[in-house]
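REQUEST ID: PR-0412
SUBMITTED BY: lab tech R.K.
PRIORITY: routine
TASK: structure prediction, single protein chain
INPUT:
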Amino acid sequence: EKMKFKDVIKLWTLTTILTAIEQTKAVSSKIFDKYFKANAKPVMGNTATLKIRKGAGVVLKTILPGAERLVKDLKDVYEITIKLPRFGLQDTILPHEINEFESLEGEAKAEAVSRKIATILKEHKDDYMTTLEFMCVGALFGKVVDGSGKVLFEFRSTATPIEFKNKEIDVVLNEIDNALVDELGTEVPYDILCSNDFFNKVVTKAKTAGEFDNKTASYIDEEGTRILVLHGKRFVPYRASYPDENGNNKKFLKENTAIVIPKSEKVYEVVYGRADHTEAVKVAPKMFFAATPQELERGKGYAIDTEMKAMPYCTRPSALINLVFSN
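STATUS: complete
OUTPUT:
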């Protein structure tokens, strides 16, 4: 008995397709991988409660009109109850493609169908990862953003920025280490993301102090970004911007400023919820959900549906230490 396309597609059970989307390699997502991935938490419903620790003088700046009612201001934390943004995509295996598959023999047919489904899953996951990475960049700076880049909430530390001017580099780095220990209880690795002018001033300072000659300063190239390593700490030029409430592009980092981004599970989190699809109730919440291929009516082919519901955020904005290099 020759296997039909229908028999092959039945092999794509929920477990199979969920495993497939989970194992699909998606586009590079440096920020998500480095700061958020290790701290991903499932929630059962459509809403999540984000807990943001106040720490050293963290203030909430509500952006979205009406959003303040979602916030509970408790003693040590802000609690935000938020509906998780839902992203869904659908692709169809069309009748003419199915006819092509039918002309293939057993194993070749199964492989061709697998390749087709894998291609769809990869395109969808790439799309989701690009969106998620975009949201993670906002979260890196203490902003809660939706998938279109709209800032929903913003948390700021009111602590005085640490000044770089007229100070020895190691003295300033000590100040940063102390501030992080005060906040997180332990020493943690960190990167310093710098505006262009901050970066240039630090380079000049290092040159003047003979740090390059003493080998305490050097450049490394990381995927095209030239990073300054100074006393073992990474100074990374950061040029990204985001759309403000009026749709104007604003740089994440103002002139002459930089921000310390600690790599610690205490600082960043991503929550993800169960998909809306009817099949999703059968399984635990997944960051990326894919449903079994569904036959469309009137021979229109088969639909492949996927979904992501996720929200990355910074749980301790006070650990994002602001730096300034005054003129």
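NOTES: The two ends are 80 Å apart (CA to CA).
REVIEWED BY: pending
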